[in-house]
Amino acid sequence: MKREDIYRTIDKPGEEVLFKDKNSKFFGYTFPITCETEAKHHINILKKQHHAARHWCYAWQIGTENIRYRSNDDGEPSNSAGQPIYGQILSFEVTNILIVVVRYFGGVKLGVGGLIHAYRSAAQLALTSSVIKEKTIDIHFSITFEYKNMNKVMRIIKENQLQITDQKLELDCKLFICVRKTMANKINSLFSSLYEIEIKRLDN
């Protein structure tokens, strides 16, 4: 059963893979991304690296709760490249990922069915050669308080094994914490119930 605060992704680019069919070569790549700009950056690098290739087809997905995705056939027949690649993202249940398949045409047409099979196979190989990790969906909070209340705040942080991501300790103190989604309401309530302590949820 899929846990509601777990998602699957990659931390680093996967190894280059190669799928061949009727003299056409399909090079597959995976990259971790958090925004569309990063996806464009990786695609542009591959276009320079494989400047003699015919097509640079791709699909990406970003987000854990508000999902965004895109697929691109890059001149191949409609839905013969980008969608088969995106289908593997769904099949492997990964997100925050870009898959690019670079095609060198081998002189023999594969037909739409052959293209779907080739792009799907290259994407599958690329994902199989990548290290996929499970991560928690985290909610970020800021906690603001006077220095005299430091012990109260730290007690809750230690008891619940919360991660402090940043801090500003001046006359007023401000801690930034990272909380697993399933614990977020509990932690919010614990800090909200304390006198002279303000907790605020931050947009990720």
UniProtKB/TrEMBL annotation:
<dbReference type="InterPro" id="IPR023582">
    <property type="entry name" value="Impact"/>
</dbReference>
<dbReference type="Pfam" id="PF01205">
    <property type="entry name" value="Impact_N"/>
</dbReference>
<dbReference type="InterPro" id="IPR036956">
    <property type="entry name" value="Impact_N_sf"/>
</dbReference>
<feature type="domain" description="Impact N-terminal">
    <location>
        <begin position="22"/>
        <end position="127"/>
    </location>
</feature>
<protein>
    <submittedName>
        <fullName>YigZ family protein</fullName>
    </submittedName>
</protein>
<dbReference type="InterPro" id="IPR001498">
    <property type="entry name" value="Impact_N"/>
</dbReference>
<comment type="similarity">
    <text>Belongs to the IMPACT family.</text>
</comment>
<dbReference type="InterPro" id="IPR020568">
    <property type="entry name" value="Ribosomal_Su5_D2-typ_SF"/>
</dbReference>
